[in-house]
Fold each of these.
Amino acid sequence: METTITTKMKIHKPASEVFEAIVDPEKMGSYWFSSGTSRVEQDKTITWKYEEYGAEGDIEVLKVEENKEIVFTWGETTVTMTFYETAGSTIMEVTESGLKADDSEIVNKMMDQKEGWVYMLTCLKGYLENGITTLRASLVK
């Protein structure tokens, strides 16, 4: 049995701006990963790097529907980002599935992933709404 986590945040920008901040590696470097090897496009494998944490990993992009949805695999999980535009704002929903319910560390993994998505969405919101670029890589464990 697999477990899913979902995180949502309202961002006071149109879906096109929120979407572009995810798919454009230069913009993403202002609030999330330090770099990406290319733009997020369907059927691409992209390496995202977090220089501050000495980490990097590949994503395989399964689906991109402009301003509406991005789906990619990330390690053992699948991430779906959905963009719901409402009156000039966007509800961004991130769903991560594929965590194994019988994993002895499932609670810790779910909490860690949920924390990461809340943090990423908070940084994205600060960047898009207020131009804040100093939140990226500030999470300390």
Note: The beta strands are 2-11, 35-36, 45-50, 55-65, 69-74, 77-86, 89-100.
Amino acid sequence: MGKQGFSLMEVMIVVVIIGILAAIAIPSYSGYVTRTRRAEAVTALQTVALYQEKHMAERGQYGTIAQLIANVGLPDPDNDNQYEPSEFYGITVDLVGPDNRSFFARATPSGARGHTDIVDGAALVFAISSDGQLGVWRGGAFVAHPELWKSLRP
């Protein structure tokens, strides 16, 4: 008669192999998810900048998110006068200067489903300015940082 089942040693070898594969796969997957969410934020900011330029061409000044929705067709699927392309980032616009001749748009991590995007101990807030500069929002001010946008690495 042949033996049936697996020995304890065979089971332990399989458990070790699965553990090694998980140790490699889980961090790789987490990095991919972070890069994907950051890419969503960057795309949303670029979309807002595009609609801002359209608003400037048609109205002679930049507009708030509500004005972009009402005047130039920025998408608002749930009709709440907010641009929410991602559940992981909230998009805001700050108008600057006399007659709203410049703006800063920001993508702030929203905390949805436990999402946080922390870099160097602070939330990573992507930003774009009316003159096309790309960067981050730190300490209430825009800091140009185009290289961060290129990599989008966690």
Note: The chain has three helices and seven strands.
Amino acid sequence: MNIRETDRPTEAIRSRILDAAEERFRTYGYNKTTMAEIATDVGMSAANLYRYFNNKQDLAAACASRCMGARSQILREAIRQPGLSASGQLRAFVRGTLQYSWDNTNKQPKINELVATIASQRQDIVHEKIQEQTALLAEILAYGNQSGEFEVDDVIRTARALYATLTLFEVPLFMSLYELEEFERLAQDVVALLIKGLEKRTH
């Protein structure tokens, strides 16, 4: 269905634009995608598309933000599975992070171009994503303190340190370093080391 020039901007139309743009970026890459092509995919004129997004960079940033939000939701559901200990939650977080990054990098290689573009041009989006991931790690640490499994004096500072440590399993650029099985073994070893450092000491 074509979108008329007189249609008022709505979230539903904006969502359709993001769907079309994301499909283009994943298939052809950021640099080879034009606003005119996205407009055609949605069924509107390029001029009408600019009523919703000022330029391709803004549109790409919105796509990246939505993808990052989807990642956070997947990790949030993973760590909040019933019956998990704090250690189990941390393992689920790292496993989910690695699997998401691996799948996106290897099944959708053009996404790396979009990530690199956003990382260099819209650092606010990257920092927002880091804050979301750090908040989930802080949630795990706080639960570990409450359950008596962990002994963490500064939850926020430790969560930031954990995020920095786990970056290897998240950044698409690193996904070409190892095969998935080797990455999984490395992730298990890193998490085991982290858990040992977080565990409550017996005095």
Note: The two ends are 69 Å apart (CA to CA).
Amino acid sequence: MADPMRIRAQVAGDKATVRVLMAHEMEAGQRRDASGNLIPAWFIQEVTATHNGKVVLTAEWGPAVSKNPFMQFSVKGAKAGDKIAVTWKDNRGATRTDEATVS
């Protein structure tokens, strides 16, 4: 299983700013190893974020996203104590979900 995501959610006014750092190798499938063989593609394809169980963000990514991607977004109406969960799924079928509490 992949390393946990680092999620920070801080409220300011009527919205929360959510910052997510995902641990993933994100291989594009275009590089070659020392033997000259192509390294197979391995990247996050889908990202979903929820606020107290309600989907607030969906994204479809491809091989052009960098290793250990960072994402930031805002959630309107969030308040301290609310739960933000982020889930990703890669092209090999692996998934990861982590959760943070808005502060």
Note: The chain has a mean pLDDT of 95.
